[in-house]
Design goal:
The protein has about 270 residues and is α+β, with helices and mostly antiparallel strands. The protein has helices at about 10-15, 20-25, 85, 130-150, 185-195, 200-205, 220-225, and strands at about 1-5, 30-35, 50-55, 65-70, 75-80, 105-110, 115-120, 155-160, 200, 215, 225, 230-235, 240-245, 260-265. The strands form three sheets. Strands 3-4-2-1-14-13 form a six-stranded mixed beta sheet. Strands 5-6-7-8-12-9 form a six-stranded mixed beta sheet.
């Protein structure tokens, strides 16, 4: 089973470029999770008969959003946080709106696991959403994953909008207090790992420096001055079935590149 994740920075853009077609044709994923769709169903001409389309779009037009394309029939699908998570925190709107209305979380249940597709809120250049990340989103999201894991193992993938360690960005010293590499954002990922979730890329490549996002400025992608902010985390119970975790930085079409894992489950 091959599962891919990709922040497409606008599904209409990658469709127009032919990049989404190229990914599906060349890589043949069983499941593809995408983030930052910036569209609602019907606004993008998606026609992949082999895949079931699952959308969670933001209420605000042209913003945020997640979608999942799967060849494997799910047991259950639900969007956003469960009611206990929504009611357990004070989700006040900020000047950007409420993260609960931005289509940021999809959960797809399969027989062997839950798959969670997430687009984590960006802290913004001026760090105006950093407190939301630290006090609300990150603790609520971890609690949500732990509640799922109480029932069956979890795979969570997507854009976490943070580099975990200095190994995960090209210029850590220059970015210590910048969005994406603040102590608060990094702590959110530390807490995820401390709770037992495994960073699949680091599981296979403890010291390799590869990136999943590059700024549009100063030809950063050509110079490979990037950040690893897209991840697959899995419950430890899934490690016996985990065969690979890859970053596909040769695949173009977005300011992010696709990432993937492969799992092999026993034949039923």
């Amino acid at each position: 089973m091959r599962i891919y994740s990709w922040n497409v920075n606008g599904i209409r853009s990658v469709l127009k470029k032919g990049a989404l077609d190229e990914l599906l044709n060349s890589e043949q994923p069983d499941i593809l999770c995408i983030q930052e769709t910036k569209a609602k169903p019907g606004q993008a001409e998606v026609d992949y008969p082999a895949y079931l389309e699952l959308w969670n779009s933001a209420e605000r037009a042209g913003y945020s959003g997640t979608a999942t394309f799967t060849k494997i029939q799910p047991v259950n699908v639900f969007n956003n946080f469960t009611e206990d998570i929504r009611s357990g925190y004070l989700w006040d709107e900020d000047r950007y709106g409420s993260p609960l209305s931005e289509g940021r979380v999809q959960t797809i249940e399969f027989p062997q696991f839950y798959l969670v597709n997430v687009y984590t809120p960006n802290s913004k250049r001026d760090l105006s959403r950093l407190k939301l990340r630290e006090d609300l989103w990150d603790p609520a999201f971890l609690r949500f994953l732990q509640a799922l894991e109480a029932h069956k193992p979890v795979i969570v993938c997507g854009d976490f909008n943070a580099a975990h360690t200095p190994l995960d960005l090209a210029r850590p010293q220059d970015n210590e207090h910048n969005a994406g590499f603040t102590q608060e954002e990094r702590q959110g990922i530390k807490n995820l790992i401390a709770a037992g979730f495994v960073d699949t890329f680091r599981h296979f490549y403890p010291s390799q420096q590869k990136y999943t996002w590059w700024s549009h400025w100063s030809h950063c992608r050509e110079r490979n001055i990037g950040w690893r902010i897209d991840y697959f985390f899995v419950s430890p119970r899934l490690l016996p079935y985990l065969k690979s975790a890859e970053i596909h930085d040769h695949l173009m079409g977005s300011d992010h590149c696709p990432i993937s894992i492969e799992l092999e489950f026993p034949q039923q």
